[in-house]
Description:
By secondary structure, the chain is α/β, with parallel strands linked by helices. The protein contains nine helices and seven strands, in the order βαβαβββαβαβααααα. The radius of gyration is 19 Å and the shape is globular.
Amino acid sequence: MDDRDPFAPLRFPSAARPLLGLTVLLVEDSRFASEAMRLLCMRSGARIRRADCLRSARRHLQVYRPSVLIVDVGLPDGSGAELIAEAAQTIPRIGLIMGISGNDQSRDACLAAGADGFLEKPLRSIAFFQELILSHLPQDHQPPTPRVLHDETISPDTTAYRDDIAHVAHLLSAAEDDSVLDYVTQFLEGVAVLAGDTPLRAANQSVVAARAAGQPLRSDLAHLAGLLQDRIADRVAI
């Protein structure tokens, strides 16, 4: 179950790449958020694999055991808290299990399920990411010398953002029940926050508020759909 290659050269954390030697399994349905995490891991020395749903993640975990498991809460086939609870009970346990969400209210659910910590989107700072991961790792995974703090942020490829938007637009056009709309609005909240797309986030929150108040959704959904099409057609700079 260990993902380490016994024939690969030994790799130890260094001041410049403090997460060298770690493998991260990211369970995340957003391509844009996954690209952000890929850049953070790459700049820190960690390898990364991705699963986009609970089913895919469970298949991964049947084959190998990552050093770090990072699980998004809102997934297309259920709550990431389910997977966190399962992973927390597995023996031998994964060294570090983290929940991640654009909604800070998900923190308590992740920790109650057995997560060691929580990452709140948007996550762009390399130094903050490294510090948070290292704070949960044992001493033998710490860099041997003072760490080089990268006061830098990462910038994910906006192509991945448009892929996410196209995915949501397709779901929205075919939405037939409340569960699909639940998924669409929570997904959009996360990617809009990460992209800093304030108009799209505001439109998405208007849909959420109208649903909560039991109000008609047609005009709010039409406005949201129009913003999605603008981004797909590249009429809006991200």
